[in-house]
Amino acid sequence: MENVLDFASVYCKQLDKRRSMTRHALKTSRSEDFATWYQEVITGADLAENANVRGCMVIKPYGYAIWERMQRILDDKFKELGHTNAYFPLFIPADLFEREAEHVAGFAKEMAIVTHHRLEQKDGKLVPAGELETPLAVRPTSEMIIGESMARWAKSYRDLPILLNQWCNVVRWEMRTRLFLRTAEFLWQEGHTAHETEDEARKEALQMHEVYKWFICDVLKIFGIPGKKPEYDKFAGAVDTFTVEAMMQDGKALQAATSHYLGQNFAKAVGIKFQGRDGSLQYAHTTSWGLSTRIIGGLIMSHSDDDGLNLPSAVAPYHVVIIPMIKNENSREIMEYCHKIKSMLPGSIRCFIDAKEYSAQNKKWDYVRKGIPFILEIGNKEVDTGDACITKRLTMEKQNMPLNEFVSSIEKMLADHDDLLHKSNSDFCNSRITQVSSYDELYAFFKSGKTGFVKAKWSGCASNLEKLDELAISIRCIPTEQSGTIGKCILTGANTTIDAIFAKSY
Amino acid sequence: MENVLDFASVYCKQLDKRRSMTRHALKTSRSEDFATWYQEVITGADLAENANVRGCMVIKPYGYAIWERMQRILDDKFKELGHTNAYFPLFIPADLFEREAEHVAGFAKEMAIVTHHRLEQKDGKLVPAGELETPLAVRPTSEMIIGESMARWAKSYRDLPILLNQWCNVVRWEMRTRLFLRTAEFLWQEGHTAHETEDEARKEALQMHEVYKWFICDVLKIFGIPGKKPEYDKFAGAVDTFTVEAMMQDGKALQAATSHYLGQNFAKAVGIKFQGRDGSLQYAHTTSWGLSTRIIGGLIMSHSDDDGLNLPSAVAPYHVVIIPMIKNENSREIMEYCHKIKSMLPGSIRCFIDAKEYSAQNKKWDYVRKGIPFILEIGNKEVDTGDACITKRLTMEKQNMPLNEFVSSIEKMLADHDDLLHKSNSDFCNSRITQVSSYDELYAFFKSGKTGFVKAKWSGCASNLEKLDELAISIRCIPTEQSGTIGKCILTGANTTIDAIFAKSY
For labeling, which of A283, B126, B184, B408 is most exposed (least CB within 10 Å)? Predict the structure, then answer.
């Protein structure tokens, strides 16, 4: 486990220096067992749990509150850019799905299929009855069903562009599942647009790729490399797929959000035809782009530490929690002081008082695990001195501060919290990008147990990819930022200018 | 068609008086054919359409924008009352569903059943493959699946109440479908709560019933009678079901939203047990409550007229649309004036400028059909005089007004719009509540072709209900507001104090 110890030394210890405590709030540390730690962060923050339905998850209130914040930010941005929300059917008839050959080949193996429309008692058991003439797939994605509507709506070039988005659930029958990262059902948004020209559609696909980059890297403070997917790893049916490949703390890549230029493939499959400016009948150029609850897994694996979750302020359900340290005789004064603090905070600060009847110490650790940026413990002492006792979640520093100072500096403190979150993560990830110039170097890197992203020259063709399978790695993307230098492809030896990112992935 | 002419005389003509035009914006009037008119309102306002999937609908951007407004208002209210959102699986294993006998009996006949997890090519066709061990129902409602999670979460009375809500899609395999009113898939919110005591759970069910009454009657300005469902017509598995029965313009009732006290039925079926204050193991008392996209159908049938949709300001995607009457030579001046108007409006007013290239006259009629409260036509004349030319959608009055006056009175004008919408609808509906004291009177009322709600005494027992089937009517609810007088049940002749509402329904 050299690799994991290595990352611990860079990242964890950097924060550990600031700690005043010795124990951690989770049983398992990242360096001991990353997968178990990930599960403990989720359980400790009460984000989600496995449902008693194969492969499905329950997103619990605290996890869902994070998703709601994400939705609000993205939704506002989509609308600002002219998109409108709509809703399309959950079910896609098998014969509609079939019309785009690559698309159906990509999804047919992992779809939930509805074949009946009721349950009937038979031999004391409920069994399916009322067989459907055409089986229905539960949508794994909606290009076909939304495209079919677009085909009805787009009659003339004047009806274009059509700029749609949908927030919904989708189902992909994954055999091995993991909370947030891979579940049979998940939530997402899927944007679908239709345009008059290739140029306009390509601009849209790139614009939404930029939106995702902004959201992932600037809003969520996740380290990500934007780029293009290799030809052989595009979305099924796309011409080009753009991705943001985020680096997790174990050095693996997470495909965080993708945007696709679909060419006229789907327009031809479902008949999105319009009368152009010259009077001729033309097929539209379409795009689609999506971001799912998977990003919550990415958020967890980017910022959490051995005490649990850490959150950027934009999606933190709460910025401040106030814990009254109540002993019977003076509870009223303490509660009044807590309410006073809450009422003095700026409107942008999301704060709540936890006055539930259980141990204040347990509460504090619960909120540490939930990643609330500032935890206030308010007891007799604070009431007497007019102070606030603050624990900064990110560094676990605890300090007393006069109330007025706390109130006037909380917005700055939250900005500092975001900066530190961002800096810690980006320093860590940047230090884990390695340049290699041959397959041997690549081999040595991954076989030595090191982790992270490796940058190397690649010809762009699909030859010799089995050399990557051997290392259980893949080409994650061709980064947007290219060096422009010429070198030899580490897989084929051919001369090429293309830089590519190689890594293990989720 | 006496009944329909009758309602036209009361309601339509009241508004028609104010009209300066003679033609209407829809082909079919309410008095000619209510069902066709309903469909034309939806098409004319571009709210939704039938999908090419049996029984499913596409909610188009303008229809979805109304739903989003509804969601925001309700969601804020739910949260204000302490509920949090969460997300639970779409699929319910058949054997879980089975555990509450009444519940499964109520839903088993109309469920989409997933039996396979992929599609395979066979004889040139895609067919289901990979059969599941246990068939999965696509949720028609989530009492069982959410209850199962609650059973894991509620260990002690300290963990209660659990106050959850979920915004999601549900599927009920309806054989005869109609946009918004009855579709195989629809969108809704479903609240689910678990409590320590019966008293607390009953209070919750009634509180949410009050919230629905407020939302339907005060926010949406729909006329509705709150009350309790008859025993035989409760939600499958409930102890008590509370409803708001809204009256549509054709006099039929629409069950607009329901709230259920579920007793310990579901808690026992899924095992929601907790350690009580006395240390004993107890079953929780649960509630559930839901409102769906069906309410958009109710909104349409309450307020729309022969020109199309009308909307209360709270859920209108836009309050004001500005149409530039552009001729080539002066388009810049007109556009500048339009932007000036928009920029002067108060922040609470949702306004947009439609500068698309098509006939201004067609645009105006499009927005009439979409029910935008105020339609501004801005041409040379308005630029010269500094006026705004305003059409008030509700009365179709057209007038010129100095711009400053328009800007300073728009909020008042919108409030007047809401008042008139409310008054027109409630005057109309109140005039269509008829009191009868015998079955003969009831019979004569409905057989004469009259429509509306009929109030009469009812014993509360399920005897002689076939007498209602003959008239194609049903008991809609036992209104919360009871006269307290004693009279004879019109079905059984028994003495009773109960007042009930009889009507045809959707």
Answer: B408
Rounded CA separation A52/B151 (Å): 12
Compare CB distances from B53 to A93, A110, A128 and report the shortest one's residue.
A93
ipTM of this complex: 0.94
User: Does pLDDT of A10 surpass 60?
Assistant: no
Read off the pLDDT band of A21 (50, 70, 90).
Answer: low
Q: Which of A47, A85, A90 to mutate to test the interface with B (most CBs of B within 10 A)?
A: A90
B61–A84 C-beta distance less than 8 A: yes
**CB contact (8 A) between residue A119 and residue B88:** no
Distance, in Å, from the CA atom of A388 to the CA atom of A402, rounded to the nearest integer, reads: 6
CATH dotted code for A48-303: 3.30.930.10
3 state DSSP class of A383: helix
Percentages helix, strand, coil for chain B (3-state, rounded to 5) are: 40, 30, 35
Nearest-Cα distance to chain A for B370, in Å, is 16
Rounded to whole angstroms, the maximal C-alpha distance in chain B is 84
B285: which 2 tokens?
Answer: 């008392």
Give the gap in angstroms from C-alpha B100 to the nearest C-alpha of chain A. 13
Same fold yes or no, A48-303 and A433-503: no
Interface test with B, best of A118, A156, A358 (most B CBs within 10 A): A118
Q: Tens digits of per-residue pLDDT, A463-503?
A: 999 999 999 999 999 999 999 999 999 999 999 999 999 99
Residues of B in contact with A145 (CB under 8 A): 51, 53
Judged by CB atoms closer than 8 Å, whether chains meet at A115 and B113 is answered as yes
Q: Are strands B84-85 and B162-171 parallel, antiparallel or unpaired?
A: parallel
Quote the CA–CA distance of B313 and B413 in Å, as a whole number.
11
Topology of the domain comprising B45-303:
BirA Bifunctional Protein; domain 2 (3.30.930)
Which of A59, A85, A187 faces B68 most closely, judged by CB atoms?
A85
Q: Structure tokens of B65?
A: 């924008």
Considering only CB atoms, which chain B residues are within 8 Å of A89?
51, 53, 56-58, 185
Q: Is B130 left (phi over 0), alpha (psi -120 to 50) or beta?
A: left
A128–B148: do the CB atoms touch at under 8 Å?
Answer: no
Place of tokens 């008839």: A93
Determine how β-strand A453-457 pairs with β-strand A474-479: unpaired
Q: Which of A302, A196, A214 is nearest to A259 (CA)?
A: A214
**Count of CB atoms situated within 10 Å of the CB of A345:** 17
Q: What percent of chain B has pLDDT over 90?
A: 87
Domain A320-413 belongs in CATH node 3.40.440.10: no
pLDDT above 80 for A14: no
Residues of A in contact with B61 (CB under 8 A): 84-86, 164
Find, among B228, B158, B231, the residue nearest to B194 by Cα: B158
Q: Which of B88, B127, B169 faces A90 most closely, judged by CB atoms? A: B169
Q: Taking residues A6-10, what's their average pLDDT?
A: 44
B64, closest residue in chain A (CA to CA) = A86
What is the rounded distance in angstroms from the CA atom of residue A69 to the CA atom of residue A220?
11
d(CA B69, CA B52): 27
Cβ-defined contact of A126 to B92 (cutoff 8 Å): no
Q: What is the pTM of this model?
A: 0.94
**Dist CA A500 CA A498 (whole Å):** 6
Least CB–CB distance from B110: residue in A56, A97, A118? A118
Residue B21 is predicted with a pLDDT of 52
**A167 with A85: CB under 8 angstroms?**
yes
CATH class of segment(s) B318-415: alpha beta
Question: Can you name the CATH fold of B433-503?
Answer: Translation Initiation Factor IF3 (3.30.110)
Domain boundaries, chain B: 45-303, 318-415, 433-503
Q: What is the band of A110 on the pLDDT scale with cuts at 50, 70, 90?
A: very high
